[in-house]
Amino acid sequence: MLGLATEHLDLMKPDSHAVVAMSQVALGFHKDARDSMKRAKEAEHAVLHHAAAVMCLTGKRRSARKALAALRRLDAASYPEWHWIASDRNLASLGSEPEFASLLASR
């Protein structure tokens, strides 16, 4: 799947780059995920902020503060699919954060 997506980058919808990045994170391909995130940032699609939050919680420099900032940007962009945020295991470590609970409750 990732190979096919990489092969056809020019045909991908803007939000697809962020989805590929999240898949790469799940598979442990953090460097590739960073490259995909660069392409997603250029596309400026709201799902980018979901992917950015996931990226903030992976790797060596985990930051709940930065992940929550990305989710605030997602909220500001009127992202309609918060059910994905609520069920994303990559964001589970934010479960004890009051701001995360507040963002989810406002849906």
Helix coverage percent? 55-70%
Number of helices: 7
Low-confidence stretches: none
Number of strands: 0
How would you classify the helix and strand content by structural class? mainly alpha
Give the termini separation.
32 Å
Envelope shape: globular
Number of domains: 1
Highlighted features:
mainly alpha; 107 residues
Give the secondary structure arrangement, pairings included.
Blueprint: H1 2-7, H2 14-26, H3 30-43, H4 47-56, H5 64-76, H6 82-87, H7 98-105
Please explain how this structure is put together:
With 107 residues, the protein is an all-alpha fold. It is 65% helix and 0% strand. The chain has one domain.
Question: What would you say about this model in short?
Answer:
By secondary structure, this protein is mainly alpha-helical. It contains seven helices and no strands.
